Amino acid sequence: MNPAFRAPRPTGRHLALLLPILLGGCAIFGPKDEVRTPPEPPQAEAANDPADAATVQPHPTDFSTKPSAAAEPASLQSPDETPWLYEGSNIPVDREWRFGVLDNGLRYATRANGVPPEQVSIRIRIDAGSLYEAEDERGFAHLLEHLLFRQSRYLGVGETIPTWQRLGATFGNDTNAVTSPTQTVYQLDLPEADPAKLDEAFRLLSGMVQAPVLSQANVDTEVPIVLAEKRERGGAAERVGRESRETLFHGQLLASRPPIGAEETLLGAKAEAVEAFHERWYRPKGTVIAVAGDTDPVALARLIEKYFGDWQVAGDVSPQPDFGDPVAPAGADPANPVGETSVLVEADLPRSLTFAWLREWEPVQDTIAYNEGLLMDALAQSLINRRLESRARGGGDYLYAQVEQEDVSRSTDATFVSFAPLTEDWQAALADVRAVIADATTNPPTEEELAREIAEFDVAFVAGVEESQVEPGSDLADTLIGAVDIRETVASAQTVLDVFRGMRERVTPAAILERTQALFSGEVVRAVYVTPQDGEASAQALRAELAAPVEADGSARIAASTVDFDQLPSLGEPGEVLSARSLGVLDIERVQLANGVTALLWPNGAEPGRVAVNVHFGAGMRAFDADDAAYITLGETALISSGLAGLDQEDLDRLATGRKLGFDFSVGQAAFTFSANTREADLADQLYLFAAKLALPEWDERPVVRAKAGSSLAYDTYVTSPAGLLNRDLETIIRGGDLRFATPTPEMIEATSAEGFREVWEPLLDKGEIEVLIFGDFQRDVAIKALRTSFGALPPRAPIDPASFAARPGAPKAGAREVLYHRGDANQAAAVVAWPVGSGLTDISEGRQLEILGQLVMNRLFDEMRERAGASYAPQVRVDWPMDDVGGGTLIALAQLRPEDLPAFYAAADEIVQDLAANGPDADELARVTEPLRQTILRATTGNGFWMWQLRGSTRDAQRLRVIGSLLDDYSQSTPERMQALAAKYLGARAPLEIAIVPEGTQVP
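Given the sequence above, the corresponding structure tokens read:
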């Protein structure tokens, strides 16, 4: 699907869980976490009270996007030409992009974008992934990605990461690379990208791509790191992914070419063979560069021409490999071509079943008509998914079910269906899901159903237009690269909306039925069932169930019903505003309502069309003791779904139709939080929903029952790998076994009930001060009126007695060791060291400086455990200093590795912290940490989300305002002596808690 025409749809289970396992994309530093920031926030006004003033200002923006006076590069296509991306397409060209083609065949696109300010995002795409490997090259595409970071024309061994850090780019977030089955993409988000830094960045990138040093020594050093990455992906999930690929993509390269590669070919990799792969596929004609950033796009084109224009590779371009097509087995019924099926028994994984209609993937003409068809497909899927969700909520035989069409790695156009049976009766769950699909492929939807989905899509596309001005350059560059990968174009948000609205007359129930029928047809149907129970199913039985006739069941269709906010009960008389004054930070206003509710309002145009709302109330985890701990997890899952103001979850969905509303709920250590992104037109309704959940809660037991089932089914999955056990148990272990931080066991979940859920949560919703934060694109008067009729209409709330708070969490036990045992692969282990630190605002500057120290420790662990020993793929260090004085602050270092490498990790961690405590870092080492942190803070300050996070609780505690003033300096300015003192105080003075996660039956080294 054209990336620009990706339609809004319910949160997918299939793509979120299955495709990453199936395709196994690999990144050199792990997942990327981008900072999303707007272009030009309002500047701070003078604070009323200097003691409360914040000196951190939004990062000033100087858009250097004026056309250059010099002649445009010859390679740059003129506005009169059809850009290379749009050849053969009638999609309106997105003229924000400038396109060009070098004489050597390299294609590029550049674009001015100021989100975040002064950043430039560079993507270099090589048209080669794991599907381009020969049998004896499995893993070479990914290995080569690693090798480009090891040594190249302008960067010596081990110099790449430090060089990018000195330029202000963090590795993993700002500097990364990803290998997929069909491409390899090198990524750089360069902050404060002045001309000199940009020139240097393009020079270094050109050397990496064109001339990596592929010596045998480098290959031998990098292979263990790749194998460490492969090892961390092992276990039950990896086995399911591998066997699922082999079944679902049977007979195609995709079945046997995961990007991570094969151990035997990696261990046997020779420099000459790797270099041959590079020479074969790393060529100008197979390369696309996309750049979006806060500078002149013509200047960017010149840099591409300067550093890539003379790139030549001898020999002819190799033809693209034949990826193969899905083919039904001989003798299959053309009307129901059930092919390969498999049943995978994994004792620690919950039941899940995926089946798919697979069709041949073919290149398309990316036209308006083609994308209209895709949008109809998306509407059809949304209709079915809503019905499947309704059936699950109403007591179906499955926990969740999801339909998703996907063009997979240019290998197949497939429609996947994934669901989780609630019990061992998978046949009943399969029949349930198939019956809903059969109805959708037999009978057209009703006009009311279709109108509902159209309204949902329309509001999402309108929001896309409104928010297009603040789309990060990194996202724009990624979208263009994604379009190149699937051989399609990109379109502006306005074009998408125009196309969608222009096709409405043709979106009829009959047309949707026709598209639905096409989605559930294909060359072959294949299926994979994962179960913890041996003998529960067989491939033959699964094939027979899929081939059996199914009767259409329309009972899951959503009945036509209208729910309107005007019909909902009043919360009371509108409240009065007692006071409104400047907060002293930016132009944020503090509003006090007569009933005790306080609010922070910041109307600003930094993020057009977007209004962020947070509501903080109650005591958070402090309100729970060990006996009630399981209700924390259930509350985050089921509290909102249990309803409000006489509405259940289905009613709430209807209420949201055609509106931009959200309703997230989280439990913090010191407060509960409702959060949502909305828009000015829906702000009053959004606030009503939040306030009504406090004033008029409903207690539908069905979401609680469903949440209990989901929690119990998922619990055993944690034991399948060291990473799983870390996710399950780390937070509670480092806090002395505090069950409030634990993942509830099935026994804890079984002891809960819907009645108990209400008994625990009802009084928690009824007490404690309320703070509302509204930041974004709205008018003050609109927000004031909405506040008065929602939270202002609530009766005064009883305060929370601090004496009722549960005990503060414990600290890591000095010098102790905890051992956990997983049931994953024998070569998998993990190690953790944890030290206690502080919490609260009194010493917050010290807590922020600890973040610098943590980054120093991580850099050294990275060098020791990854670069020197090849023992761990990505050691991590995390600093947690809670701003609320709730205790439980920690500095944690962890790594996944082999069991025999545990002693090396503990020894390395101890040596690092003792050296830092005795000697501190040198100036360059410190600068490599502080400069990226400075850039991260500066970029973050341009966004509303940053300020909402920093100012939460400030209506009750003015100290939060005072500590903002030192934030930038605290995170980005330090001295070797300060780091040495902190290391001595927190790390060198006491032995840490050690946690070892090893395979069952292993003797801990």
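The CA atoms of residues 38 and 319 lie 43 Å apart. Try to locate this feature in the token string yourself.
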